[in-house]
Amino acid sequence: MPCVALVPSGDVCGASTSADGRCRVHAAQYETLIHNWKVANGEMSTLLGADIPPLHAIIQTGDMENIAAVAERLTKLLDAVAIDSLAREEVKTRYKALPLFSEDKARIQRKTFMVKEAKDRLRTLAKWTTIGQHDQDDGYAERLALFTSQYPPVADSTAGRASGPRMIMFKNTLREALHNVGKTLGLPCDSKVLDLIDYAKESENTDGIAQACLRQNSTFVRKYAVLLTDGPPPSMIRALALDSQSECILQRLVLQQLLRRMLFYSPTTRPAIEYRDFNSIGEVFDSTFVSAEDLAFLENLIERDAFGNGLVWWKAAVQEALHIASGTSPQYPTFDVLGGWIYSDAAKVQLDADGWIILANILGNPPNLESKFTPLCQTFEEMHVFFSVLHLALPPPPHVHDSATGRTRASMCQAGFIMAELVPSHAGELPPVGPTNKPGAKRGTIQWVEFQRRAYLNGLIPSSDTPWTRSFFEALRAQERACVVVVYDETKTQGAPDAISVSGGPLGDSADWSIRTRTFDGPPFSGFDNLPEPKGRNWTTIRSAVDILTSDGTINLPDTGAGPSRSSPADAEQMFKGFATRIQGGEQKLVFSNKAFPARYVCILDSQPRTDGKDLLRVVEVAALRAAGVLHTLSPTDGELAIAAADLHERRMKECFSHIGTV
């Protein structure tokens, strides 16, 4: 292509007045500049490798669109490095004791100066235009300024501090992510990142982490980039046979998954972001931006099934990144495998407003999510995989600090027990009995049949009689801690639930309920969810399963004045389903009510009264893992449970993506 007339938008140097002269002078300068920049910034050299043609050759062709594109790309990368250098200097000043920020100050200053010089020259090149064209501005600085104004760094104050349990959860979350990345992808673990996490835990001041997460390509984030860019496994190179540009695209996408999860689990950045950027979190990091060309390239890889030979994890992450970047909605939930490695400590799947926002983003923002998301799962297997990933992905409620609870819920779901809720027995005390002279009709006398309150959990299991179901009940019977199981099967002809005991005999023989009647002041009992509230106290009770189940397994509804009354089988069916599956939200919604397959609703009662339910949760988890064949001891240690849960998680994810390639 002949060289076109070039007009500079500003006087940049005393070069020759001819167009060709200007091209040659600037090309030589930029060639030297790029060479020096590569030497000074070795960690970014993969992004400026052979995929970028020499600028001298581009300028000689006169193809100014290509010149502008190359200059724009290099300018963005230089902006990223400049921000990184400033972030290093600021954080180093505040945390001098950290080995992570022990780079020589002169080297940082030299790098910053070279980056500034490179940016100035590249921006000059980007302003060279053909006659009649306007100067191009990618708006990068404006977008960065907008983000900085919306999400400023957290100040070093009490607002920037996190509680000890929250910080421990954050540290364990990142450790788990590092461990699994190293295990699956064969990449080394960066001990300096763990040093930073330990330091933040000890000081309980997360301002440094918050700044690092919020700053584009900052030191903290770049440490994770090293895990994904330095020395990729030979299996990946052989299987994909990708050039350096293609590898960088994949690495950026996988890194995006880790960054997105890291931001939401940070004790300080999560409240700042407020879940509003769940799908667009990649826009925060310019190096993880996915262009239209990147999308086309990745779609081509997926179409020709280039992922295989142990790279199923890569494709899973790429598929989700494609949905996020392109804004498309899959027909059913995509499973964020990399995010699924990070264990949440959510004690319940009670979705508040934030939870529904997160779930909506996972599913691609479908309309009327609350009433329509369960039919997306057409089989029990799809639902238990979906809920297991949901348990792992949801941020924990602020009042929960047990890091093992989320893993327990997920492992039970992956084994086959979809857990809906766990209710402790020590919450919600009954009101004291007080003498009164008021007639019963005036004071709203209520006779409440009170059983010993026990913790319970409930959920779903397959409706069909499977080997797992039989093994699950046998494993429950083998546990030292006795419990009672109440089951309602949707395939039954009768509506009443079945009550079975796994503690050695029928329910009526093995469970010695302590029954007594209390009379107290309160409003008349008008419904199942309207529990009495005595005068002078704000009394709310978390109902226990034994409050509504009689010894023969039918539903027992308290009545006003005349004692308990039996419900019909149809009422028993409806009440038990509501009791077993209700999840609190903005409105009372039944998560499982619209599913497209039959299942058995299960309620498991603890034999010990006044417990927090964690022991019962462990009993059920052990039984589920033993039935799934990943646990073989009757009383495993915490470490053995964690290993078994991780093995089961890996197995389920491989089964879920088995159509992609052989793992």
Secondary-structure blueprint of this entry?
Blueprint: E1 6-7, H1 19-40, H2 55-61, H3 64-94, H4 105-126, E2 129-130, H5 140-150, H6 164-185, H7 191-203, H8 207-214, H9 219-229, H10 234-240, H11 244-265, H12 269-273, H13 292-303, H14 312-326, H15 337-340, H16 353-363, H17 369-372, H18 380-393, H19 403-415, E3 418-423, H20 440-443, E4 446-450, E5 454-462, H21 467-478, E6 483-489, E7 498-501, H22 507-510, E8 516-520, E9 556-557, E10 565-566, H23 569-581, E11 582-583, E12 589-590, E13 599-609, H24 614-628, H25 638-656
Antiparallel strand pairs: 1-2, 3-5, 4-8, 5-13, 6-7, 6-13, 9-10, 11-12
Walk me through the structure.
The chain has 663 residues and is α+β, with helices and mostly antiparallel strands. The protein has 3 domains: 6-138; 155-328, no CATH class; 420-613, no CATH class. It contains 25 helices and 13 strands. It has helices at residues 19-40, 55-61, 64-94, 105-126, 140-150, 164-185, 191-203, 207-214, 219-229, 234-240, 244-265, 269-273, 292-303, 312-326, 337-340, 353-363, 369-372, 380-393, 403-415, 440-443, 467-478, 507-510, 569-581, 614-628, 638-656; strands spanning 6-7, 129-130, 418-423, 446-450, 454-462, 483-489, 498-501, 516-520, 556-557, 565-566, 582-583, 589-590, 599-609. A 5-stranded antiparallel β-sheet has the order 3-5-13-6-7, with helices on both faces. It has a two-stranded antiparallel sheet with strand order 1-2. The chain has a two-stranded antiparallel sheet with strand order 4-8. Strand 9 and strand 10 form a beta hairpin. The radius of gyration is 31 Å and the shape is elongated.
